[in-house]
From TrEMBL:
<dbReference type="InterPro" id="IPR054296">
    <property type="entry name" value="DUF7032"/>
</dbReference>
<dbReference type="InterPro" id="IPR016024">
    <property type="entry name" value="ARM-type_fold"/>
</dbReference>
<feature type="domain" description="DUF7032">
    <location>
        <begin position="73"/>
        <end position="184"/>
    </location>
</feature>
<dbReference type="InterPro" id="IPR011989">
    <property type="entry name" value="ARM-like"/>
</dbReference>
<dbReference type="Pfam" id="PF23005">
    <property type="entry name" value="DUF7032"/>
</dbReference>
<protein>
    <submittedName>
        <fullName>ARM repeat superfamily protein</fullName>
    </submittedName>
</protein>
Length: 324
């Protein structure tokens, strides 16, 4: 099917308008899909100046959605996001704070791109994908603030949206810093080729340990909902093969798990307490748990947590007391 050059030239603009409309209606589930579609297919000018869509659009493969792809796309969005934010006259104090965060993004991206494991880990790709989505949202929200629809959108709603954007930028910057400055990326590298002479039967063990390492790394990044999913997956892995988790567990992951004992959602606290309860049964982790500050949140959970949370907290405290 042939598509005219004139139509393909305007297609990115059409997608931008749809994205803006969805943002106004807060249809986030559709918004992200469209942002992804636009950045996958129209990153380069050549992609939408040819006469045939079939001849010029590559299929969406893993290589297209690589970390390099999202890095390039995020860098392309940054100048536009900053420019739109500077042009916004509504809620100047809030936008000044957002501009400061946007100006910190290039350095964070450069630091992440320079990490030796940058191209070897899906965490980088997913983090950059999240950054690109936030930048697209910043552009759309700044345009909405300056449009005639800003009043109809509602002052309180607009303030809430701007505050939400600021929180997302903070989370993106924090995640980039964590990936770079901690050993998270190194601990969660994709499976490597085993050394010569290593038994074939050991290869699945290596791969499983590296997969668990990536799962543990996800405890450090993302929002509360993402961490909830990670805890669910960890519990499942532990029940199937506890040794695979214990063998790759690091101090930083234990600290991240302890912090989840104070999470906002009771279910997250319960599941984190369940994992810590299992760790406390192992003598090799009892001292580490105490040194990382597990006692105060456990005591709080034992006093005011849910029924399951209190039960797991009490068992863990008793286990630590016996070991002591």
């Amino acid at each position: 099917m042939q598509i005219s050059t004139k139509f393909t030239l305007f297609l990115p603009t059409i997608l931008n308008n749809i994205i803006l409309a969805l943002l106004r209606k807060r249809k986030s589930e559709n918004l992200f899909s469209l942002v992804t579609l636009r950045c996958c297919f129209f990153t380069d000018q050549e992609d939408y100046t040819a006469g045939s869509m079939a001849d010029n659009l590559e299929p969406v493969t893993e290589s297209v959605l690589s970390a390099d792809h999202w890095l390039t796309h995020a860098r392309q969005l940054i100048p536009t996001a900053i420019e739109r934010a500077h042009a916004t006259t509504v809620f100047p104090v809030r936008w000044k704070s957002i501009i400061s965060k946007l100006e910190s993004v290039p350095t964070s991206l450069s630091d992440l791109a320079s990490h030796p494991c940058f191209l070897k880990n899906t965490l980088c790709r997913e983090t950059l994908q999240s950054v690109a989505s936030t930048l697209s949202e910043a552009i759309g929200l700044a345009e909405l603030c300056e449009s005639g629809d800003a009043v109809r959108h509602g002052k309180l709603q607009m303030q809430s949206d701007i505050d939400s954007l600021a929180a997302k930028l903070d989370l993106n910057l924090r995640d980039c810093a964590l990936l770079v400055k901690t050993g998270v990326l190194s601990d969660a590298t994709v499976p490597v080729v085993p050394a010569p002479g290593l038994a074939v039967a050991s290869v699945p063990v290596l791969n499983q340990q590296l997969n668990v390492g990536e799962l543990l790394a996800r405890l450090h990044i993302g929002n509360a909902e993402a961490k909830h999913r990670v805890v669910d997956s960890l519990l499942e892995v532990i029940r199937e093969d506890e040794k695979s988790v214990l063998s790759v567990l690091r101090r930083s992951s234990i600290l991240a798990m302890i912090q989840l004992l104070s999470a906002g959602k009771p279910k997250v606290r319960e599941k984190a307490a369940t994992i810590i309860c299992l760790l406390a049964e192992s003598a090799s982790f009892e001292t580490l748990l105490v040194s990382e500050g597990v006692l105060p949140p456990l005591i709080r959970l034992a006093e005011s947590g849910s029924l399951v949370g209190r039960e797991k907290a009490v068992i863990t405290l008793q286990s630590i007391e016996v070991e002591s």
